[in-house]
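To the wet lab folks,

You asked to see what we're planning to order before we commit. Fair enough. Below is the target structure as tokens, and below that is the sequence we designed to fit it. If anything looks off to you, flag it before the synthesis order goes out.
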């Protein structure tokens, strides 16, 4: 049988056989017995949930002879409803990737120029524990930071708290959805959730701004919007690019980049001045209407046309359609929202527009979620008493979560307090944080850098110790609690097969490291199963049922406002705050105000980037079931503009940014009429710089290489990355 693996051959044969052959060169012998074992053993079906993106859809692994041969969606899962996206179906590509991290490694070379020494778990953890003890003695426990992404991070946060540090940040806040969450918190006193509380299936009218729904493969959300379409919902998409979801829209508004706030303010003005807002709803539940009306009066549709290039009559028409269909309308809050530096205010404008139309807590708008509950592990000792230290995010008064922005700055400057160690869990910081050179500078200031991952991502090249975590199909993990419409979900991750090579689950790694730090009392569980079982027992939850079904659903309250179900708003006024006194008190605009942003220099384009439908950024760029379908990214260029520059469809080019930085590698041109002529677009996550990622290394161009500039949102510390411009260079 051929050693070459492709997605096409996978579809023709069983996944187990093909995947086993692909990994044969490096797979442990006990996992190479598909064809050798006599007879067919019973196929087990083991439920768990996916980790190839944060949606965490429930899946059922079909296991034969201790090998996963197929995965299907779990019909009980509220996140997936029995379906998996393309990358979710590629679970075997993550599990059986021969490039996986296989054993602990200690870097005996330099950061950035590693020389790896294979280590035992005992050796690696002894090195880490020794460093942690020294750092704690010299600088205090709060000098250690955890930067994380993923479900298993819960055990690392627990370890850090037991050690004495509360310094933990997810890049998903400062580099992704933070401005959105804070904008809605300041308006409604609540965020929009994850998965978001969009009631798309009941909507009559939906507006998406820069949201690549479908390409981001948010499973149940895609199902909901399709159901809404089938019931007659209308869709307007605002985006410089005709994204896949824009191609399904009733109206595509190809807005000039960096002018979205102008459009939103004009819509707010029209809705107010033409009396299209929900007067009863606003009078009963909102405050600050008169101040809002006065503040937006200057933002006429004609003015907005000059900023956005969207015709004023179209701006008015959409506003009227929103008013006609209110309150069953949903102006989506998006997810990736760190765009231009005034992102919290743009999100505030989206929240205000929803409030005026009465969509918060109304059918077809934003529903009130039901959450599931499971107690923490019973009987754990209290964490060490917190030692008061200087707050890193003092400059960003509404950073309701810790930001990586401040951690990186404190690591470089030592102010307002030193940060001397990073634990990086499941987050490829070389592709996550802007200004790569600044990130490297921060890492060089550390006394300890530890990476915990399943794959040899770019970030491991700068690590002192690398710990191989087993994949989500090989481990118990933290319980996943989901909030949905009228129902809450408890989802279980459990192992479907034994861990490959010497990889270990985080519950085991943190327990062993905790023991070496003298923290054994914080890790009393025998194993991951006991950890989950005792939490369920404490909450009266049937653990046997959870193991069998993978999901338990808890019924909840009403999702909409009724006479008996009145809303509560977690704002200082107890109402929806159209005018924010909180912002005013901190010196910010209480009503969003438009600021004009720089435009591309002559010969340059604004660099836009987003998701590929078949990839979760660099997390899947090496997955052998997906690279056959998309191994590199493409540079979308407006057809007319591209031809003016002598570009041909499919030719390779290089890119140089406004600071003269030339991106490593080359990228293939895609000439298209689906993009404005003042921007270029590419998928994020490609252009990996890691020899250990044999299929991903050097494929395409990394947009993150070109992000030498970013604007910081002064309200919450988010790093806006769509402020970079590039020039196309032929002859790559």
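Sequence we intend to order:
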């Amino acid at each position: 049988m051929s050693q070459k693996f492709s997605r096409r051959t996978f579809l023709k044969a069983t996944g187990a056989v093909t995947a086993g052959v692909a990994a044969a060169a490096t797979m442990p012998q006990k996992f190479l017995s598909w064809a050798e074992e006599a007879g067919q053993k019973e196929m087990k079906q083991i439920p768990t949930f996916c980790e190839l993106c944060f949606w965490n859809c429930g899946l059922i692994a079909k296991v034969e002879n201790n090998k996963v041969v197929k995965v299907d969606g779990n019909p009980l899962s509220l996140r997936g409803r029995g379906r998996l996206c393309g990358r979710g179906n590629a679970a075997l590509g993550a599990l059986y990737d021969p490039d996986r991290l296989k054993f602990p490694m200690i870097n005996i070379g330099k950061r950035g120029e590693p020389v790896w020494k294979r280590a035992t778990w005992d050796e690696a953890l002894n090195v880490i524990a020794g460093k942690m003890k020294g750092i704690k003695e010299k600088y205090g426990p709060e000098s250690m930071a955890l930067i994380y992404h993923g479900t298993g991070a819960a055990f690392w946060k627990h370890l850090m708290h037991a050690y004495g540090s509360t310094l933990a940040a997810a890049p998903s806040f400062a580099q992704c959805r933070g401005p959105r969450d804070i904008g809605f918190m300041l308006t409604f006193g609540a965020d929009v959730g994850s998965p978001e509380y969009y009631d798309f299936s009941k909507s009559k009218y939906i507006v998406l701004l820069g949201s690549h729904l479908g390409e981001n493969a948010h499973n149940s959300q895609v199902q909901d919007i399709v159901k809404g379409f089938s019931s007659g919902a209308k869709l307007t998409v605002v985006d410089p690019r005709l994204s896949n979801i824009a191609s399904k829209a009733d109206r595509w508004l190809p807005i000039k980049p960096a002018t979205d706030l102008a459009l939103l303010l004009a819509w707010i003005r029209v809705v107010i001045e033409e009396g299209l807002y929900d007067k009863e709803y606003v009078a009963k539940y909102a405050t600050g209407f008169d101040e809002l009306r006065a503040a937006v009066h200057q933002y006429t549709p004609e003015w907005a046309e000059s900023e956005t290039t969207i015709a004023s009559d179209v701006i008015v028409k959409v506003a009227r359609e929103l008013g006609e269909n209110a309150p069953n309308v949903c102006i989506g809050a998006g997810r990736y929202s760190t765009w231009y530096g005034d992102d919290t205010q743009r999100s505030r404008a989206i929240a205000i527009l929803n409030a005026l139309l009465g969509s918060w807590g109304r059918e077809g708008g934003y529903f009130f979620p039901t959450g599931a509950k499971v107690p923490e592990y019973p009987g754990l000792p209290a964490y060490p008493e917190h030692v008061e230290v200087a707050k890193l995010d003092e400059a960003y008064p509404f950073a309701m979560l810790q930001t990586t922005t401040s951690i990186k700055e404190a690591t470089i400057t030592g102010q307002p307090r030193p940060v001397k160690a990073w634990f990086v869990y499941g987050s490829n910081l070389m592709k996550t944080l802007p200004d790569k050179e600044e990130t490297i500078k921060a890492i060089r200031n550390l006394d300890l850098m530890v990476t915990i991952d399943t794959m040899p991502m770019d970030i491991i090249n700068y690590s002192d110790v690398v710990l191989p975590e087993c994949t989500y199909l090989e481990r118990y993990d933290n319980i996943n609690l989901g909030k949905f419409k009228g129902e809450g979900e408890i989802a279980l991750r459990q192992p479907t097969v034994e861990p490959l090579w010497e990889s270990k689950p985080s519950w085991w790694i943190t327990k062993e490291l905790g023991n070496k730090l003298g923290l054994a009392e914080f890790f009393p569980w025998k194993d991951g199963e006991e950890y989950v079982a005792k939490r369920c027992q404490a909450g009266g939850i049937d653990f046997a049922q959870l193991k069998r079904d993978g999901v338990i659903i808890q019924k909840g309250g009403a999702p909409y406002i009724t006479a008996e179900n009145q809303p509560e708003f977690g704002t200082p006024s107890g109402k929806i705050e159209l005018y924010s006194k909180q912002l005013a008190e901190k010196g910010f605009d209480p009503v969003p105000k438009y600021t004009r942003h720089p435009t591309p220099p002559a010969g340059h384009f604004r660099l836009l980037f987003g998701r590929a439908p078949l990839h979760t950024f660099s997390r899947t760029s090496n997955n052998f079931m997906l690279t056959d379908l998309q191994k590199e990214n493409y540079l979308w260029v407006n057809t007319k503009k591209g031809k003016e520059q002598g570009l041909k469809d499919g030719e390779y080019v290089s890119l140089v940014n406004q600071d003269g930085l030339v991106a490593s590698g080359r990228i293939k041109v895609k000439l298209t009429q689906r993009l404005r002529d003042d921007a270029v677009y590419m998928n994020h996550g490609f252009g990996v710089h890691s020899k250990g990622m044999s299929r991903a290394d050097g494929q395409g161009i990394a947009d993150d290489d070109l992000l030498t500039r970013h604007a910081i949102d002064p309200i919450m510390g988010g790093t806006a990355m769509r402020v970079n411009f590039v020039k196309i260079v032929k002859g790559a």
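Structural context that might help your review: The chain has a mean pLDDT of 94. Residues 121-139 form the longest helix (19 residues).

Thanks,
Computational group
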